[in-house]
Amino acid sequence: MSRTVQGPGPALPLSFFSERHRPLNTQSRFSTRALALPAAALVVALGVAGCGARTSDDPGADSSASSASCVDTSGDTVKIGFLNSLSGTMAISEQTVRDSLDLAAEEINADGGVLGKQLEIVAEDGASEPTVFAEKAEKLISSDCVAAVFGGWTSSSRKAMLPVFEAKDSLLFYPVQYEGLEASPNIFYTGATTNQQILPGMDYLKEQGKSKIFLVGSDYVFPRTANKEIIAWAGANDVEIVGEEYAPLGHTDFATIVNKLKGSGADAVFNTLNGDSNVAFFKEYKNVGLAADTLPVVSVSIAEEEVGGIGIDNIVGQLTAWNYYQTVDSPENATFVEAFKAKFGDERVTSDPMEAAYTSLYLWKGMVEKAESFEVGAIQEAAGGVTFDAPEGTVTVNGDNHHIAKTALIGKIGPDGLIYTEWSSDGPIEPDPFLEGYDWAEGLS
Amino acid sequence: MSPRVRVWGGLVIAAVVLFGVAPALLSDFRLNLLAKFCCLAMVAVGIGLAWGRGGMLVLGQGVFFGLGGYLMAMHLKLSDAGPGGVPDFMLLYGDGTVPGWWEPFRDPVVTILAILVLPAFVATLLGLAVFKRRVRGAYFAILSQALAAAFAILLIGQQKVTGGTNGLNGFQSFFGFTLSDPVNKRMLYFIAAGVLLAMVAIVRLVMNSRYGELLVAVRDQENRVRFLGYDPALVKVVAYAIAACFAAIGGALFTPIVGIISPADVGVVPSIGFLVGVAIGGRATLLGPVLGAIGVSWAETSLSESFPSFWIYFQGALFILVVAFLPNGLATIGRLFRRRVKEPEPVPDAAPATLETAGTPT
Amino acid sequence: MDALVSQLFAGLSLGSVLLLAALGLALTFGQMGVINMAHGEFMMAGAYTAFVVQKVIADAGVSLLVSLVIGFLVGGLLGLILEITLISRMYTRPLDTLLVTFGVALVLQQLARDVFGAPNVDVRAPAWLSGAVPILGVGIPRTRLFILALAIVCVVALALLLKLSPLGRRIRATVQNRDLAETSGISTRATDRLTFFIGSGVAGVAGVALTLLGSVGPTVGTNYIVDAFLVVVVGGIGQLKGAVIAAFGLGLLSAGFEYSTTASLAKVLLFVVIVAFLQVRPQGLVSVRTRSLA
After folding, report:
1. If you ran DSSP here, which 8-state letter would residue A66 be given?
2. Complex ipTM more than 0.90, yes or no
3. Using one digit for the tens of pLDDT, what is the confidence trace for A332-374?
4. Residue A38 forms contact with B (CB below 8 Å)
5. Residues B261, C176: Cα–Cα separation, whole Å
């Protein structure tokens, strides 16, 4: 232990921090006094601040008391917030949602606004990170005082924002299909929940006589939860799940997973992969000689936007499950597609999340007009039963769980890159986020 | 001005700004943002020590930041669930039982101890494994980066016990204090600011100790230090462990302040992000990393609001220009200028600059 | 048996992808100790080159071959520019090059996003590469065979270049003893520049090849960069042999782990194996013998 140890031995002298050995530098002596200032500051700080509410103080002191709304409706405009990722990995998808939100806002403003007030948009970038979503949501509510926020895409961004909206008692309109098992009074879900997208997809496969299904997904919350529900469904429907594989987000080599798939004896694949991984998966799928007519893949995260990047050759004939396609035949959709192309260019396509976002703004308008107020409580009260003739068909808000009734559509990807409806449910399906109407789903939530 | 006066002056000014000016001027929302920046600055202080002083390019500090953040989040989740309760996300994704290794963190004391000790312990083990075998320079940088990647993937994959990509969030209270109360948020800010100042003081203490000089010696001439009878591996491990501990404390405070910790905060990109502020502020200086980290985070928040793509160019350009042309960061811009006037020749060479790749003759 | 053969091939194929991604790195990192984080973005540039070339030449087969050549030039030129403007100023600070090139990577990525748009673009594979070839009773995708062949061609070409050409001799001399090479009249600066050109060019080629397997988007390079660095670290520097063994070794290991566990766990296990391996051989598999202490 002495400092005379030779060579690279474990000799860290004990006197490292000692004041006595100081041969190299004499000018800067430092003592424990250095700690006094911050320590004192800390004590003062705790003294000053230590008088906040404790959880044990008063069980009735709920959060809304501390966050009175600062929304200003006195002028002839009203502020709303758009929060989508414009940078990072999710920018690809979320930019399209932002575009259709912009379109809806422009149309509403041109049509006289909401309750006579023009919409003033405060736009924010979620940067594809849940932390940033939470931070920006708070900014929109507390600093910008918006009446409602529209946006979010990934489940993690929604889960990150949920406590913020509940604590501040504000409203979020979330436009993307998701894994269900959630209902917040402060969130309106205008995308599909499980029983409006995934279960119809499974029912369709069963109807087609498929009985051995392979599950492949990205390794994150939506696929894992969705697959948990699918497995429960399969148990009650005499369908065998022959494999369940997850790839890390951004995974690019699907040789092994496709090998496992080939060896599993599956007669259909249910795909919850996200983003880039779909490209690598479908290229591999085609290259090993698998094809849509013998082993179909039902995807729930591939919309018109993504088809081009995957390559039409690689994915033509495969199936998707959504509630809207650009090819939906209705006057409302024709107007929507035409307006969108006029604003953003003829080469652009419209997809389910874009339509759901567009619809969400109109639904909010409907709620405000029914409530005749921008106030959160009044809107929540008025929300049930509000309808809108959306491009996908007429949708109705469910006042209990804040989801909307939607028609499920199974589509087939055509050689032109658009998706064509192959099968549709008998009219709109009532949202059932906790799958309470299904016996097999007991114990899931 | 002697360095000592300067440092004291700096600390006093920092304390006045953090405790007096900022709370008086900023709204609750902005103050909370500043609290978050303070947490990031804590990581930067540690990096300043390990990288600026010790020459170890720590590309994986997200791991320790995440360890601290997740440890704290586990405790907050458990205490929200109440005694014997199960956190909400486990009911949703898992089998509704709390795994055994979560249980100890019901106890606040155990949690705080774990935050202080566990990451430092992990860093010590890893450091010993790596430095003892004289893996250094770029090799160490790449390994620590891969560690961050692996850690993030592990967190995402274990959704039932870590919340997966969602991370952990929705905390109601912080050691008994309601988090939705603005007064308590303010308290958190003061704690973060106080801890940050304390860390700066500790680093100052370490930098000026005999050990601090040894650390710089190891950075500049590892072999000579070895010949003198010291073990450079141990010297490095200490700095690495301190940096890890600071990062963990930063993470632990980040969790209640921001209200969420997720794998997106711990992976490769945020780990490199921690370096940006340090590099720009001046890696080897005392206050440079702090100011750099806070400044860059502030710029990111405000610039990215209006120009998301411009921000990325700006960040990239800042990185290139500062590291290539101002290796000691903006902190030295004045010094550089003064020296240029006096003697035009020397380019600052504080970078740990021997060709440190293994196998290259030294 | 089928599973074993196809998994074995999956490993070899992953190895060849890793090798293509890491080959250029092994060259630049090995010779100059420069850690080029923008290497992945050079791959991205190669991938977008394939996309652009396909716009001009409609025939997918011809355009692929043309893109391989142009991809090499594009990658190489980007590397050359980077070397001349930034890296040449920083040879004494190899760790700092890591940060500078990270900044370059950020900028290039955003540039791609602004020029080509954030969504992925599609590069069609030629007809003669679609489908599978039966080998030992298992269908092996032609694209993967092509990439395996391409990797082998690149390695052989580089090896010949290093072994036989005057440039190769200069490069080897510089790697082994920079000062002595300098005193022997070799312009190490010019050699460095050429090495960087070739190394970055190989990254461009790798990018073109990857369009056959995966997506073409702004982040395509980042998906490979960490793995590529690990290959170089495990392989050791100074010789191509190390990189080749490391790439195929890690590829096989990763495919094996992934088959027996999950894709996520495989990545974590791989990292554990690498740290353990560096305990045994801190300099990697193969390293040039020197008299330095490190």
Report:
1. G
2. no
3. 999 999 999 999 999 899 999 999 999 999 999 999 999 999 9
4. yes
5. 47
